[in-house]
């Protein structure tokens, strides 16, 4: 199936109205691969119809990205021009919204020296750290969606038939993102209400810790005082609601980064900067990764963990039922936006300051005092499975089920 204009328009309408929710007179920056050209045309039209002004598109060409890594000296890869930073910062300071079309080729940089990729990525993260604060603190609306590209679709379905793979991936995306329903916007409102119910339940409980157990996980995670669970839609500083991730099936919070102990093994591959990391195991002691190993991408994992002081600690814990629509597809998407919503997951690196009461007003050192991790990176990896149990530990030491055999144990979830 090649998506019709009506289907693309319907997806674009959902993205603009429920995803980034651009407001009248608000600027919009769209970051997109060149293969998403048709979809972006619909997005821009929808943005203008919503009253947006100053709609800009930043095109990404993975072929040129690969050539850059192959040929540029490291000194150039590590240099982020001032105009790149200024463009992002000016847009954010003026209250502009940001929409990312995320559809990476999982194998794009597999034959590039992992150190070159790591150093270039770190340089960009350092240069844009102030811009990142606008995102992680929900100062502006932002959202991420995906569309099929040939390389990505062929990887998912393990085929050389690009046309069939892209057709199949469009079908999957329209189902998962609820575009195939009569009223996708109402379907998303209903879905958000379910996530809000779980979020509110966990916020009322204020558990002292979580206990994870399965074939892959044996982990205790301390929770900070006054932690805040989030999930579904969010609200920007302006009061505008938005959905940061489409799809989303998670509720999440920040751990006390100093209080994580035990071992975890991944249950889905991690696509990190165009390289796959798989069959890996992490051992935590007092929050820090003290041992690691990987069957694939171990050197890339090492560079990830060495990114900065906070990259060996957790910044997010997220709960997702094993029966989520993404999980039911029985596909590995090699795309964190999708795979993280098929599985309970953890994130190495920075926490969202909004996951602790008043955190959006705190500086990094103040956040760390409360147990909220700070880092240049934020990388989700999947640990969920059909046999996963997650218990909330009360301040009195009692255990209460939250996830039982991979599914919600919360009434009404």
> Spans of 5+ residues with little confidence (pLDDT < 50)?
none
Helix vs. strand class = alpha+beta
Number of helices: 14
Largest beta sheet, briefly?
9 strands, antiparallel
How far apart are the first and last residues' alpha carbons, in Å?
34 Å
**Binned strand content:** 15-25%
Mean pLDDT: 96
Structure explained in plain terms:
- With 413 residues, the protein is α+β, with helices and mostly antiparallel strands.
- The protein has 2 domains: 5-176, Thermophilic metalloprotease (M29) (Thermophilic metalloprotease-like), CATH 3.40.1830; 186-230 and 247-408, no CATH class.
- Helices cover 35% and strands 24% of the residues.
- The chain has 14 helices and 20 strands.
- The strands form 4 sheets. Strands 5, 6, 11, 12, 13, 14, 18, 19 and 20 form a 9-stranded antiparallel sheet that branches.
- Helix 1 (5-20) packs across helix 2 and helix 8 (150-157) packs across helix 9 (162-176).
- The chain is globular, with a radius of gyration of 20 Å.
